[in-house]
Every structure is written in structure tokens, then in C-alpha cells.
Amino acid sequence: MAPFFFGQASIGPHAGRARQSRGSRKIKEAVLDFSFLSDFRIVPHLVALSIAYALALPIAWNREQEERSAGLRTFPLVALASCGFIQATEELVKTSPEAMARIVEGLITGVGFIGGGAILKIGSSVQGTATAASLWATGAIGAAVGLGSYDVAVTIAAFTMLTLKLLTPLKQEGQSEERKDR
Question: Could you report the per-residue pLDDT of 78-104, keeping only the tens digit for each?
Fold first, then answer.
């Protein structure tokens, strides 16, 4: 004998058949309706977000090793958020390049604001400008990935790392020469 399920008649001519009201049928149809999944494109978004995150990690590691105010957590989050904002609004701005320009403008401003928090004035010196500029570049990496311009994102990441790796020792050498002159 088949097991008894809620809503089934156990005796009579309709034994074993589920009796459903029209309302419960509609609820069941709504619950089983997965048509919204046709617009659910998680894999391409995960790939893009992962690329933005990965491209920011070397920059983050460099800033962390240099013991700067922003580091291993901040940089990937900036890239991730920038990419996410672009991706989240792509359907809204398909037919309006002006709208996309406004979104990118907002990202530039927002990331610049975060970068501004990394700049500190200590006495007569200003510190954190390279970290602020790196945060801004990381926001551009995330936005480029979000827009599908992977080549631009990789180029920005490479030049940012080159700048931080190659020019930091030169700056430190120049600063030590200045101290000797005093």
C-alpha cells in the first residue's frame, strides 16, 4: 500500500490520488516554477568576481608586507565591490551608456574616498599616497573586470605591481640620501 500523504484520500473511489484545491495547486506551481533561473547567471559572475579578487591579491600582499594602513583584506574587497557594482547594474544600463558612466563615476568617487582615509599627515610629511593610489587602481581593476575588459584589468594590475616593487626601493634610497644631506 502506498504511504499516506497530507491531502490524500485514504478510502473511496479516489484512494491514493491527491485532492488539491485550486489555491494549493497555484501555490505548488509557484513553488515549482524555476523560470527565474533562466536569468540566474551565477557562473559568469563568480568567474569575474574571482578574477577581480585574484588580480588584487598581489597588490594587497605588497601593501601588507610594507605594513601600510590598507592591506590584505582591503584591496581584494575594493576590487570585488567595484566589479560587483558594475555587474549588479549591467541589466539596468544595457541601453544607456550615460547610466553606466554615472555608475563608474560613483565608483571612482567612492574608492577615492576610501583611499583618502589611507593618507596621513604626520608633521611636515604626508604618508599613504601610494596606498591611496593603489586602492584607486584596485577599484579600476574591479571595474574593468566587471565591464569585461580583462586585458585592461591585467594591465593595471601589472603596472601597479611594477610601480610598487620597482619604485619603492628607489624612493627609499632617495629618502635616505635626503636624511644624509640634513
Answer: 999 999 999 999 888 888 889 999 999
User: Which amino acid is located at 125 in the chain?
Assistant: S
CA of 4: how far to CAs of 13, 14, 31, 50, in Å?
16, 13, 22, 48
Predicted confidence (pLDDT) per residue in 17-26, tens digit: 555 566 666 6
Dihedral, 20, 22, 27, 29 alpha carbons, nearest 10: 90
| Spans of all domains in the chain | 1-33, 41-166
Inter-residue contact 19 to 9 (CB < 8 Å): yes
Question: What is the end-to-end Cα distance of the chain in Å, rounded?
Answer: 98
The structure's pTM equals 0.71
The answer to whether residues 30 and 128 touch, using CB atoms and an 8 Å cutoff, is no
Query: Exposure of 138 by Cβ count < 10 A (0-12 exposed, 13-18 middle, 19+ buried)?
Result: buried
| C-alpha 96 chain-centroid distance | 22
